[in-house]
Amino acid sequence: MIRFGAxxxxxxxxxxxxxxxxxxxxGFDSLWTGDHVSFHNPLYxxxxxxxxxxxxxxRIRLGTAVYLLALRHPTVVAKITSTLDVLSQGRLxxxxxxxxxxxxxxxACGIPHNERGARVNEGIEVLRAxxxxxxxxxxGRFVKFxxxxxxxxxxxxxxxxxxxxxxxxxxxRRAGRLGDGWVSYVVTPDRYKRSVETMREAxxxxxxxxxxxxxxxxxxxxxxxxxxxxxxxxxxxxSRRYNQDFGPLADRYGVIGSPARCVEQLERxxxxxxxxxxxxxxxxxxxxxxxLGMLASDILPHFRxxx
Length: 307
Prior knowledge:
alpha/beta; TIM Barrel; 2 domains; two-stranded antiparallel ribbon; 11 helices
């Protein structure tokens, strides 16, 4: 089965909450947010935002894609995520990644940029220990404690599923060895297929069941009958978001155009092994509700009728 989540841009609070309720009413499976401490554009803190979503929704799962775990102490993160899982009644999906494209936020948090991968690896282990054990003990390179219990424990046994984000081989191996799933962004279907194979190989080498791993893709999508206008919107919005020219990336990585054209592009990822699309409508914030409606009416049914 193919599942669909939605990721929203930043809006004033009441508009943000209204869109979250709309995503649930439209039948999406989940609601996601990105994460940065400091970025080119304003962003809400991710876990705080998900807590607000938990209060205005009832069914959909809530996820980070992805949380920069290296920037925070994992014991504190274990407490926050345990609480969020309880308050949402077991709906949290915790996507984590190393980040790194904005070195200034590592500087601001006092974290050496070159330690981010090792910190994420260890942080995942700390989270799993504190989520599941009472009390827990841990001795690692960055974190050491003896006989510590974080309570209340998450509603989900063993804690929320951890999805690992990234495109590098190190990220794929991390997902296979330590994660419950993987989420990509800005890749082609061919690269996606190869990445799934790499992740599954790492899982098998670690003695894990690769078939249990979720495969997701954060999808930058703009639906529109006028392909040139849709493309210009996609390029303009993402270029401003990431402070770089996305023009050369549009034809290679964008899901852009009519509903039929977008379905065709998503099908290529499904054929490559993607089972969970995190759809991020790339549009003017004022048009986001309309984009979400088109995704729900013109994109999701195509995949849902296939089971």
